TrEMBL record:
Entry GO CC: cytosol
Upper classification of the organism: Bacteria, Pseudomonadati, Pseudomonadota, Alphaproteobacteria, Acetobacterales
Presence of the UniProt keyword Transcription in the record: yes
Residue intervals of the HTH lysR-type domain: 1-58
UniProt similarity note: Belongs to the LysR transcriptional regulatory family.
Protein name: LysR family transcriptional regulator
Xref: InterPro entries: HTH-type_LysR_regulators, LysR_HTH_N, LysR_subst-bd, WH-like_DNA-bd_sf, WH_DNA-bd_sf
Alphabetic keyword roster: DNA-binding, Transcription, Transcription regulation
Organism (species): Gluconobacter aidae
UniProt signal peptide: none
Keyword Transmembrane set for record: no
Pfam (any one): LysR_substrate
């Protein structure tokens, strides 16, 4: 077992302040401060600087934080594996996901998984793709689903599910019966898009630059539901991930029309995890179920 002072130091670094760490651990701030001081004495140097906005790390503190993080996370993974061996799988799996797949994959995977492992519970949080990656890196979740995340050596890819970006059109749209369209055609009329907080915007921007095109959306939004609603009401097209083109229970269905553009056709959802920690067996099992529950969208 690692020293308690190391665990407290790790919690302070994760929380960013003594007070937030004490709240998270359910102990007094003075107790947290004493444990941090003990750890600094053990290391023989100052590790943190206190300020009005929280704590900052000295150079030595950064080295100690990296070590503490690896020790604590490896301990957690080991404990999960030993619990699994003893037949005790009770744990919480936190999933961060982009909006486009929240209803088409994770929920089915969770339902299927809990039929076999009913002691495992889940917390599902929806956020834009860049925030998913940060949540995975900061261990705010165990599993992330992100749209075409940038390569990162600290992030492990567990699976890739094709998710092409399409023009979703309502009834009566001029492209409704087309099997595919060019990017120039897709943006030639009134069109709406997600805003730049979504990973899809970075992919669309790349496609436009490569084609020498520009776009002036009638509306941008941080909600796929709002974009679908506007497309139905106005009769225009919405540039969306294919799984986000329609939602069960909505009054009319938008039809996804493939866009002939390599960056858009190469859209994909990546199932990711922290690459700096060992994956407990229970997480590996769930990741396999998750990938299999999300077949290629059509």
């Amino acid at each position: 077992m690692f020293p308690g002072a190391l665990k407290v130091f790790f919690e302070v670094v994760q929380a960013g302040s003594i007070r937030k760490a004490s709240d998270a651990m359910g102990v007094s701030p003075s107790s947290v401060s004493r444990q941090v001081a003990v750890f600094e004495r053990q290391m023989g140097t100052k590790l943190i600087k206190r300020g009005p906005g929280g704590i900052s790390l000295t150079h030595a503190g950064q080295l100690a934080a990296a070590y503490a993080r690896s020790v604590v996370l490896e301990f957690d993974a080991l404990k999960a594996d030993l619990d699994d061996m003893r037949g005790s799988r009770r744990r919480l799996i936190r999933i961060a996901t982009v909006e486009s797949v929240v209803a088409s994959g994770p929920c089915q995977a969770i339902a299927d998984f809990r039929r076999q492992f009913d002691d495992v519970t889940f917390r599902l949080t929806m956020m834009p793709a860049p925030q998913v990656v940060e949540a995975v890196k900061k261990d705010l979740c165990e599993i992330g689903l992100a749209m075409n995340p940038r390569p990162d050596p600290t992030v492990r890819t567990l699976g890739i599910i094709p998710e092409p970006i399409v023009l979703a059109v309502p009834e009566g749209h001029r492209f409704r019966d087309r099997s595919s369209i060019s990017l120039a055609e897709a943006i030639s009329g009134e069109v709406v898009t997600p805003d730049d907080s979504f990973g899809i915007w970075r992919i669309l921007d790349r496609a436009l630059r490569e084609a020498g095109l520009s776009i002036r959306p009638a509306m941008i939004a941080n909600s796929f539901e709002a974009l679908r609603d506007y497309a139905r009401m106005s009769g225009c097209g919405a540039i969306l991930p294919s799984r986000a083109a329609s939602r069960a229970g909505e009054p009319t269905t938008l039809v996804p029309i493939p866009i002939e553009s390599e960056p858009l056709m190469s859209g994909a959802v990546h199932v990711i995890a922290n690459g700096e920690r060992r994956m407990p067996r229970i997480l590996t099992l769930f990741a396999d179920v998750l990938v299999k529950s999300m077949p290629l969208s059509t």
